[in-house]
Each structure stands twice: as C-alpha cells, then as structure tokens.
Amino acid sequence: DQQVKQNSPSLSVQEGRISILNCDYTNSMFDYFLWYKKYPAEGPTFLISISSIKDKNEDGRFTVFLNKSAKHLSLHIVPSQPGDSAVYFCAASPNSGYALNFGKGTSLLVTP
Amino acid sequence: EAGVAQSPRYKIIEKRQSVAFWCNPISGHATLYWYQQILGQGPKLLIQFQNNGVVDDSQLPKDRFSAERLKGVDSTLKIQPAKLEDSAVYLCASSITGGSAEAFFGQGTRLTVV
C-alpha cells in the first residue's frame, strides 16, 4: 500500500524556469516530510524538510510547501539549473522516531 | 566527515545462492537502516536498528533475509536463498537520532539475481 505518492514519473523544465514537483500522502499520522535528490549510481541525498507545524520551508532555490488538509506537498526549485537534473523522492514519517516512507520518485530534466 | 560506506557496489548471483552486504555508518550515528529499492520504485524499509537493537523489521522477509548490527556499529544484511525478485539496490542509511532526522545514505549495492 503506497502511502506516499508521486504521480508524475517525469518532468522536463527549461533552465531558469520554475520546477514544481508534487507529492501526496494518505497517512494522516505523517508529521515530518522530506525531499531527497538522487543522481544515477549514488544514494539519495537529503535536500529539504518540513514539519507539520509549518506550511513552508525555504532553503536557497528550494522551497517546500505543505498543505495538511489536502495531504499534499510540493517542492519548488527556482531558478532551475541543469545540475538539478536528478530523481527527486518525497518521503514522510509519523515523527522523528520512525523510518521514512518514500514515494516512487519524479525524474526531473532541466534543459539548457 | 566520512559518509556511509557499503560494499560490494555490485553483485551478480544465481537464484538460490546466498549473498551478504556490508554497511559502515557514519561515526556516532545510533540509527541504521537497510532499504530495498526495486527499479522504478522508491526505497522500502527492510529493517531499522537503534544501536544494536532492532526497532522495526516488519517488512523484512524473515524466511530468507537476516540482518545484524553487532556492537552497534557495522551491519550486515544477508539473503539466503536469493530469488529473482530480490534483484534491487540495497541501500544502507544512518542518522544521529532515532529516525527521520535527515538520514544519510550510502551508494548502495546493486544486486542482480539470474
């Protein structure tokens, strides 16, 4: 049973534009949400997180928005750069004491 | 700071053979995870250790998979006997605290069962 869903397997964006990656979840107990970035042949690397007490968290070009009532979060990358091309995983957990539930990932391609 | 180390990077075995993977977490990280990532899927937790105790192994196929973390540092994951559907990347991750505080992942071991 997939509790974290990333319904877009792939996304293509022009360099300099905004990339928006979406994620939905079904478990209302999830309280902590993270985005990981993965390059081929490497392990996922942490990008940004948000807890349920917030609706927005920003780190440089990356912003995560959380809509708890809709059980939806999104990652915005502005401006997108070719080096951002990777697979992005959304992950969630009930709290910091539990392991992560991952979505299937969205492959982002940023073209020059 | 050294990252999470895993070996081997790649392994090809025949079905019904056994295989073992090794993980050395970041120094000082109490929590260690093994995830299985099948092609086209997100990582799925197999087992979570806190120091040398098991916190969650509910998704570990215990008839064929086993894992240990002796002395609360290094960990090994074993599959015996392997099946074709075990072909995946096996990721080890570690974190300072008991869970989702950003887990740091190793490069993974790509297992192919033929």
Descriptive labels:
heterodimer; A: 112 residues; mainly beta; 6-stranded mixed beta sheet; B: mainly beta; 7-stranded mixed beta sheet; 11 strands; 0% helix
How many DSSP H or I helices of chain B? 0
H-E string of chain B: EEEEEEEEEEE
Instruction: List segments of chain A where confidence is low: pLDDT < 50 over at least 5 consecutive residues.
Output: none
**Over all CA atoms, what is the radius of gyration of chain B?**
13 Å
Q: Hey, roughly how much beta strand do the residues of chain A contain?
A: over 45%
Largest sheet of chain B at a glance?
7 strands, mixed
Number of DSSP strands of chain A?
11
Q: Tell me the span between the first and last alpha carbons of chain A.
A: 38 Å
Number of strands of chain B: 11
Number of helices, where a helix is a run of at least 4 consecutive DSSP H or I residues of chain A:
0
Q: Return the structural class of chain A.
A: mainly beta
Mean pLDDT of chain B: 93
Q: What would you report as the Rg of chain A, rounded to the nearest angstrom? A: 13 Å
Overall morphology of chain B: globular
Helix/strand structural class of chain B = mainly beta
> How much strand content do the residues of chain B show?
over 45%
Quaternary structure annotation: heterodimer
Give the integer mean of the pLDDT values of chain A. 94
Q: Which residues of chain B form runs of ≥5 with pLDDT under 50?
A: none
